[in-house]
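Quick start: read one record
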Amino acid sequence: MLADADPIFRLGLKVTLANLPDLAVVAEAESPAQILTLLAAPSTPGNLAEASAPVDLSPSAAASQPLYQTLDLVVLDMSNSDTDPQANAIFCQQLKARYPGLVLFVLSSQGTLPELVKLWQAGIEGFGRKGNMEALTLGQQLRRAAMGERVWQATGQGSGADGNLR
């Protein structure tokens, strides 16, 4: 799932990821409320762009298979929304509490060291800076996060010499 308040960014990332054969955007959200609605909704052709693995979309299976069970990870950035950075970390923490197996990767152009520490403490698996990495690198980071590795590329404000969170 790709969640970002900016529809142009969502389109651009979706097109970029389409060039990486094992990655696909299967649902999109533009707000925290929409993320929650989609995660609880059944997996249907209406909210699945395409699946990276076969998903049973029969009516009986859809009723028993919420979207969150079909996702490898959620890539999100709510920094463009009207919420403050602390609220974003709290929202991520609530997502992790409600859906413990859900992998979250925050892709943002913002994030001070204290904000990144809050995301880390919330259990977010990955963080990367928008506009600061090649598509193949992003793909590798998303794959690693989906496999359970914590991946933090915090180059810029609040990072160490190697670009990693301290």
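The chain has one domain: 2-152.
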